[in-house]
Amino acid sequence: MQDMQHTSSAFAQDLADLQMNVVRLGMLASRQLNACLRAMSDFQAGQVDRLIEQDVELDNLQNVIDERVLSIITMRAPRADDLRLVVTAARVASDLERVGDYARNIAKRTSAVMDGAGDAKMPWDALIEIGTLVASMIDDVLDAYQQGDLEAAQAVRNSDIHVDKLNTGFMKSVIKMMEDDKVSALDGTHLIFMSKNLERIGDYTTSIAEQIHFIETGTQPDGDRPKADGTSVLSSL
Amino acid sequence: MNEVATPAGLESGALPMDTVGNVYVESPRITARNVDVYYGDKKAIDGVTLDIAEKQVISFIGPSGCGKSTFLRALNRMNDTIDICRMEGEIKLDGEDIYAPHIDVVPLRARVGMVFQKPNPFPKSIYDNVAYGPRIHGLATNRAELDDIVTQSLERAGLWDEVKDRLTQPGTGLSGGQQQRLCIARTIAVSPEVILMDEPCSALDPIATAKIEELIHELSNQFTIVIVTHSMQQAARVSNRTAYFHLGKLVEVGETGEIFSNPSHEMTRNYITGRFG
């Protein structure tokens, strides 16, 4: 889009503030996830307790964004790409809030596994690998959102297939570990859920990438979203 | 790149485009082809081609001086009343060239009626305001027929219940919104095929505006309606298609929902999002 100034500077400021709040929400969600990954890496279950409490910040900011969306629609009657930006902000905020929820759930499970695993060796590195990929997708999609960068958004969308593959592989390996009694059924279940939560965060991030496409073009991206999640049809290892 | 002469009050500029969107429709009531309109040496409308569909509402939008009212007035030869105004190109109503030498503008303007920005009832009774057109066009052979036309026109204009007990009182005594609906009743009393509306709500309050918009919606079942409006909200609410004019050119035309949610031309987008400098 050509960056021509709004005749109403107050309207332009409203749009800029809205976009900034969405990015702030994304940064909070990203902080939650990265802190989880650090806790796994450092074997410090205590680090995640604070994260669980911080989730309320995301909820509050999402409410602020929803209120601003309603206010702008009511007061400014946005049209065309302005309208798409405003309407999409609510959806992107909802996606990011869900990212925060999943990160919080991962944090709880991280704490539970670390508290209960004793000396058992957990596949933290494999989980951190998935988490790192997902965290970089969130950072990239927030940059793409701020810049209106279609190419970067498409790259994020294409990355999701790698998350799916890693998640499928992780699930298989944890089931094998459970069969071999290397991890308990309880810990194994936690680990599978953690990986699945990361996969879902990847899906939400991909959804945001698709929203960027819609904001910029007024259309949905061509073609089906690349998928490689084999967990739901897994019949053997 | 076509160099465009400058409508009064606007800076000159070269416009690089032809019209974006489909200017043609399947069953047009009016067809305009390569229409130029000049005020003296000034070209106010430049090469506009557009179909206007039967029983649909089309809105003309654009900044002041873009030529939307000039083009609207070309559709029933109202510009003929301006000495220095001349038109080139072709405008047909139901396939008949309205600028052909044999065309009488009086019956033409009955077929293509017009409602103006400011309500302009005649200084006559409410009844006579509506009866005036049918009388001069000989549409009623007796008083009973005339009464029927007046009653039906006022009903279709949504005014009957408000004025049925005071038909002999002056039309000028009504409120602004009622006067505008009276003017619409007067227009439809002669059974036009097309109704042109030049900013019909710009002098009305929001309630009166809502009533006129509802009326436009109802009348579109029977009439082809062309409306010039500065209110993009109004264009979005009342019209099936929207046409954006700029510096005398038809920049873009399309389904109203598409124009306001995802316009194809950058100039349309800049205008409807308030980025017109």
Strand order of the largest sheet of chain B: 8-9-10-5-11-12
The backbone outline of chain A, from C-alpha atoms, is elongated
- Structural class based on helices, strands and sheet pairing of chain A: mainly alpha
Biggest interface, residues from each chain: A-B, 18 and 16 residues
Alpha carbon gyration radius of chain B: 19 Å
Q: What features would you describe in this structure?
A:
- The complex is a heterodimer of chains A (237) and B (277).
- With 237 residues, chain A is mainly α.
- Chain A has one domain (2-236): Methane Monooxygenase Hydroxylase, Chain G, domain 1.
- Chain A is 79% helix and 0% strand.
- Chain A has six helices and no strands.
- In chain A, helix 2 (47-76) runs antiparallel to helix 3 (80-116), helix 4 runs antiparallel to helix 5 and helix 5 runs antiparallel to helix 6 (185-217).
- The mean pLDDT of chain A is 90.
- With 277 residues, chain B is of the alpha/beta class.
- Chain B has a single domain (28-272), classed as P-loop containing nucleotide triphosphate hydrolases (Rossmann fold).
- In chain B, a hairpin with an 8-residue loop joins strand 1 and strand 2.
- Chain B starts with a strand and ends in a 5-residue tail after the last helix.
- Mean pLDDT of chain B is 91; it is low at 1-16.
- The chains are: A mainly alpha (237), B alpha/beta (277).
- The interface between A and B is medium-sized, with 18 and 16 residues.
Give a quick set of tags describing it.
heterodimer, A: 237 residues, mainly alpha, Methane Monooxygenase Hydroxylase, Chain G, domain 1, 6 helices, 79% helix, 0% strand, elongated, B: 277 residues, alpha/beta, Rossmann fold, six-stranded mixed beta sheet, four-stranded antiparallel beta sheet, 10 helices, disordered N terminus
